[in-house]
Write a structure and sequence with these properties.
The chain is of the alpha/beta class. The protein contains nine helices and eight strands.
Length: 265
């Protein structure tokens, strides 16, 4: 069985110097591809180099809303130029991680909300202009991210760590997005997430770890890892009453459908 981790911060400091061994162990467990999103200009080259060093690595480029406070419009120009230069790179697959975060108090101040929306829109335009999907961070901002995506129309994407309503889920699906599920789904108390994972069309779901964050129940509060993806997939199979191989095959096909630049496994 092959799996795709559609969202993993393998470059995070929590992995220390173990990023490549972690990727190798995940590969040995069937994780054939790990998508490593950038979060700021300073780690654009880092995620690219790591994706090339790991046989099962690929990467996305973008500016995360948490890093928007210190970002400048020059960073957007650098991003656009680097995206253009990366279109010949077979390991480059998407724009991300981008989005809106209206949970952290400092990011909820009016000026910062406006700046976040500016960065989201400009990055959605980059995705649209280069016919790329987006990996979106959506925290307490589902409807606002949907609004901007409807207006700018990137080439689909993934609503990372989806935790919205069924109506919002349909809004993303109508735009050609898939919905990312990971460690949060493994907690029995996460009733809404588990209901979404059970009742949404399987064709709309992709799997992710968001490692080192959003650890599954058996690791919480420890460091998450792409090695956990097959077991997370097993939880999805159990929730839906499906064969594990069917879930692996369908979620892998879903990831490839929304990120057609993914290298062949």
């Amino acid at each position: 069985m092959l799996w795709i981790d559609t969202h993993c911060h393998l470059d995070a400091h929590e992995f220390g110097h173990a990023s490549l061994p972690v990727a190798q162990r995940a590969g040995d467990l069937g994780v054939g591809m790990i998508v490593i999103p950038a979060v700021e200009r300073a780690n654009f080259a880092i995620v690219r180099d790591l994706a090339h060093a790991a046989p099962n690595g690929c990467y996305a480029l973008g500016i995360h809303p948490i890093y928007v406070p210190h970002a400048t419009d020059d960073d957007l120009l650098v991003l656009r130029a680097l995206v253009e230069a990366s279109m010949m790179d077979p390991r480059f697959v998407a724009i991300g991680e981008i989005g809106l975060d209206f949970f952290i108090p400092m990011l909820c101040e009016p000026a910062m909300r406006t700046k976040q929306e500016h960065f989201l829109r400009e990055q959605l335009k980059i995705a649209r202009d280069f016919d790329l999907p987006v990996l979106t961070h959506v925290r307490r901002s589902q409807d606002m991210v949907l609004k901007h995506a409807r207006q700018i129309r990137p080439n689909g994407g993934i609503a990372h760590a989806f935790n919205g309503s069924f109506q919002q889920a349909q809004g993303y699906i109508d735009l050609g997005f898939k919905l990312g599920f990971g460690g949060a789904m493994t907690f029995t108390r996460a009733l809404q997430i588990r209901r979404l994972a059970t009742e949404l069309p399987l064709e709309a779901i992709v799997l992710e770890t968001d490692a080192p964050d959003i650890s599954p129940s058996w690791l919480h509060p420890g460091r998450n890892s792409p090695e956990e993806l097959p077991r997370i997939g097993a939880v999805l199979a159990e929730l839906r009453g499906l064969d594990l191989a069917q879930v692996a095959a369908q979620t892998t096909a879903n990831a490839r459908a929304v990120m057609p630049r993914l290298p062949l496994i």
